[in-house]
Write a structure and sequence with these properties.
The protein is α+β, with helices and mostly antiparallel strands. The chain has helices at about 5-20, 35, 40-50, 55-65, 90-110, 130-145, 165-175, 210-225, 230-245; strands at about 25-30, 70, 75, 115-120, 125-130, 160, 180-185, 185-195, 200-205. The longest helix has 21 residues, at about 90-110.
């Protein structure tokens, strides 16, 4: 979604932040139907900060107002950005830059007592904290901040969890076998240690429900194509495995 910034970069920064910067709490957040709820007037105001050419602004507003045609029925759009539109990822980043990133950096972070970090990729983000009080305050103030710009978090997908070097020990003290996990960019993140057991590490694995869904689709493909030459089946299988890895 940004030149030179991939999902893997975001995952790498997240792992480094939790392992090396004293993170003990993570806030996992999810914006409900983000692309459908972007306030177009607010977005155009943000764009006007960066783009002086009125013709460019008119073109972008036409993108936003173009609407969609579904099953032969046209529906105009007065809210949100068109999902699948070539300009939507850029507009999404710009909208959250003003509504979330700058607010976190300039307003929220200076009031924190421990180290903090926000890692965002498109509309998917997590925040890392050293102090639980900072994490709780972020959870409350983030919801208020997003509400000012027509956005709403999904309560069932937004939570604070202990995640860091002390999380496993705290879980055992509370009678739980393992520390909690969280999902980000297609991976489930969990607490683990280095091979020699001395150092805390962030482990990652594919979200189980997504892996199960892909395996089901592959099983159906095998059933439908089992008469193909073995070499072709193996070549396709190797491609699918390479993609997963």
């Amino acid at each position: 979604f940004r030149p030179g910034r991939s999902c893997h970069d975001a995952l790498r920064v997240l792992g480094r932040t939790i392992e090396r910067q004293g993170t003990q709490y993570v806030v996992e957040a999810d914006i409900k139907a983000f692309f459908d709820n972007v306030d177009q007037n607010q977005l155009m105001a943000f764009l006007a900060h960066r783009v002086a050419d009125k013709r460019v602004l008119r073109y972008i507003r036409r993108f936003l107002k173009a609407g969609i045609q579904e099953d032969g029925v046209y529906r105009a759009s007065d809210r949100g950005t068109p999902q699948g539109g070539v300009i939507s990822p850029l507009l999404a980043n710009l909208y959250l830059h003003y509504t979330l990133d700058l607010w976190f950096q300039r307003r929220f972070q200076p009031g924190c007592t421990g180290s903090v970090r926000l890692i965002r990729y498109a509309d998917d983000y997590v925040a890392c904290f050293k102090r639980e009080a900072d994490a709780k305050r972020f959870r409350i103030e983030m919801e208020k901040r997003l509400g000012l710009f027509g956005l709403e978090i999904a309560p069932e997908k937004t939570r604070i969890l202990a995640f860091g070097p002390m999380a496993q020990q705290w879980a055992k003290e509370q009678g739980r076998r393992k520390a909690e996990t969280f999902d980000f960019l297609g991976f489930t993140h969990y607490c683990t240690t280095s091979r020699n057991g001395k150092w805390f590490r962030v482990g990652r694995k594919t979200i189980s429900r997504r892996l199960s869904a892909k395996l089901k689709v592959f099983k159906e493909w095998l059933r439908a194509n089992r008469t193909l030459p073995t070499a072709e089946i193996m070549r396709t299988t190797a491609n699918k495995l390479r993609g997963h890895y």
